[in-house]
Amino acid sequence: MNTKGKNPSGVPKLLVDFLSYVENTTDAFAKKSGEAKLRIIHEKVTGLKRSRKWEGRYMRLGEYIDREVRIGIEEGIREKWEETREKVTEQVTEEVTEEVTERITEEITEKITKNASQRILNLTCQMVVNGEGKLISRLSKEPAFLEEMFQKYHL
């Protein structure tokens, strides 16, 4: 049962009139209904609406509700902000860490490759100068021989 009901059958007329009155609390509606009890209710409602005391209480209640709603909204926004900030920070940290790791790995690999190439070049030059050019083909096939030659030529 509510004030928007469309089927008043089986419901007492006074209740139907009262629910309609709740939707339309005007003097005209109260007089039109013809129910004495409804007119008494209307007089009380009208009196309360005119009362400064009740008007003040109603206003304070409205202010209290507004303040509580505002506080709730602010708290919700603050919580959502913190949650979002944490997620974004975590995501950005992961992305930056991944990118930095990738760059450092590339740089180190490049330097190692450069150093290794330079070292091999120096070794082959030393071997040619010292008459060991025929042994150069063994360097790529025999890792132990490569190390032996690096040590021999202090590279």
Q: Would you mind describing this structure in some detail?
A:
- This protein is an all-alpha fold and 155 residues long.
- Helices cover 82% and strands 0% of the residues.
- It contains six helices and no strands.
- The N and C termini lie far apart (96 Å).
Task: Walk me through the topology.
Elements (H helix, E strand, L loop, with lengths): L12 H11 L3 H7 L2 H15 L1 H78 L6 H6 L1 H10 L3
Report the C-alpha radius of gyration, rounded: 46 Å
What's the pLDDT, averaged over the residues?
A: 85
Work out the helix count. Answer: 6
| Shape call | rod-shaped
Summary tags:
mainly alpha, rod-shaped, about 160 residues
Question: Summarize this, please?
Answer:
By secondary structure, this protein is mainly α. The chain has helices at residues 13-23, 27-33, 36-50, 52-129, 136-141, 143-152.
